[in-house]
Amino acid sequence: MTGVVPALGRTALITGIGGQDGSYLAEHLLDKGYRVVGVVRRGSAVPARIAHIRSRIELSDVDLLDEGRIADLLLAVRPQEVYNLAGHSFVPSSWERSDLMADVTGLAPARLLEAIRTTDPAIRFYQASTSEIFGNALESPQSETTPVNPRNPYGAAKAFAHFSTVNAREGLGLFAVSGILYNHESPRRGLEFVSRKVTDAAARISLGMADSLAMGNLDAQRDWGFAGDYIRAMWLMLQQDAPRDYVIASGTLHSVRDLCRVAFAHMGLDYERHVKIDPSLVRPAETVRLVGDPSRARRDLGWEPAMLFDHLIAMMVDADVERYRNGRAHVGQPEPGAG
Ligand code: NDP
Q1: Is 2 part of the annotated catalytic residue set?
Q2: Cα angle 253-157-161, degrees, rounded to a multiple of 5
Q3: Where are the domains of the chain?
Q4: Ligand 1 centroid vs 19 CA: distance in angstroms?
Q5: Are 8 and 33 in contact (CB under 8 A)?
Q6: Which atom of ligand 1 is nearest to the CA of 128?
Q7: Element (H, E) at 252
Q8: How far is it, in rounded angstroms, from Cα 327 to Cα 153?
Q9: Can you tell me the distance from the alpha carbon of 222 to that of 254, in angstroms, rounded to the nearest whole number?
Q10: Active-site residue flag, 182
Q11: What local confidence, expressed as pLDDT, does residue 292 receive?
Q12: How far, in Å, CA of 308 to CA of 316, rounded?
């Protein structure tokens, strides 16, 4: 890794700080001595995922659809680094309001970049891009040079944001990078995501609170990693001498069946006795597999994912069991010992 800037005394602004990645990134930057300022939605309570670090961060409720307020915020906060993590991250719901998706996930990054250009072009900008920009992928595994080919409103909005970032870098000379991240999970993942759905069910079934779990296609495959590893890559990207886009992935595919098997086995259960196939949940299998090639990140950033799949899933199940045992109903609360 080259060009690492000393962190002490630096200020980072994180949009979406109350989300899974935002909460881990905030912890990471605090540990490095950053002053951390987070953007949350107007009127929302302090998100559960950052309650444990609330006293160590500053929060601002600026609307990401309001370019003037974003510029004012940058002038007030004076960050050296901006991490744009805000967005609607659940792909299926993107079909319901693709206009909203385009606004928050697609246009807000362009507004942020414009505000950076007009207030302080020295700010380093990270855009939370996604493997969904490859959509119906034209090759597998995918790398930074794979053609973008999104196939849902989420991927299309992220593709716009991705190219806005590329254009800001190449056309305006900003230090703007896009991290093309594959699925990453943690005990702070929302319950609507398949990983969390399975670990939560394994926990409830093991505690006698439920008996079965309805699932769709168990043969669907994903490239899964740990959010705590992936946010390290975000930070590393902004510490380089030159801005570049990076694929961040485990490079390994696991099936939903693997996920169920590992999660249930961790609690001494046989998934085949509890997982029931619900035909209404079955979706057509992808023709080309979405699996990332993180070679560039490995080479330039020295980045490697530290946590393996089985350990990640076991950790999520443990956190869910702990949460139910302690009567902590909220899924977003940090796991014991966090922060
Ligand atoms: P989360 O859904 O956990 O967090 C997203 C955050 O964005 C939430 O805090 C949410 O706030 C906030 N947000 C949503 N809409 C708005 C809005 N209009 N104004 C301000 N804030 C808003 O996602 P992750 O942390 O998992 O992901 C972070 C980013 O990385 C997202 O952009 C996601 O699309 C992207 N990404 C994630 C991947 C993953 O596997 N996790 C893979 C690839 C990319 P609230 O809590 O109020 O809803």
Answers
A1: no
A2: 95
A3: 11-184+225-248, 187-223+252-291+300-326
A4: 5
A5: yes
A6: 30
A7: none
A8: 37
A9: 6
A10: no
A11: 98
A12: 12
Per-residue tokens: 187: 């005990």
Peptide bond into 141 cis (omega under 30): yes
Predicted structure pTM score: 0.94
Local structure of 119: helix, strand or coil: helix
Looking at the chain, which runs of residues are DSSP E strands?
A: 11-15, 35-39, 58-60, 81-84, 124-130, 175-181, 184-185, 213-215, 221-222, 225-226, 246-248, 254-255, 275-277
Whether 88 lines ligand 1, by a CB cut-off of 6 Å, is: yes
Answer whether 11-184+225-248 and 187-223+252-291+300-326 agree in fold. Answer: no
Residue 30 pLDDT > 90: yes
Angle at 117 between CA 182 and CA 112, to 5 degrees: 45
- For 46-71, give one letter per residue: b (16+ CB within 10 A) or e: ebbbbbebeeebebbebebeebebbb
The CA distance from 58 to 61, in Å, is: 10
| Active-site hit among 154, 230, 246, 271 | 154
Class of the CATH-defined domain 11-184+225-248: alpha beta
| 208-266 tens-digit pLDDT | 999 999 999 999 999 999 999 999 999 999 999 999 999 999 999 999 999 999 999 99
In terms of CATH, what superfamily is 187-223+252-291+300-326? UDP-galactose 4-epimerase, domain 1 (3.90.25.10)
Based on the residue annotation, tell me whether 34 is a catalytic residue of this protein.
no
Exposure of 280 by Cβ count < 10 A (0-12 exposed, 13-18 middle, 19+ buried)?
Answer: exposed
- The residue contributing the CA closest to ligand 1 atom 41 is 184
Which residue's CA lies nearest to atom 47 of ligand 1? 41
**Type of residue numbered 105:** T
Catalytic residue among 130, 146, 165, 199: 130
**Is residue 85 in contact with ligand 1, taking CB distance under 6 Å?**
yes
Strand-pair category, 11-15 with 81-84: parallel
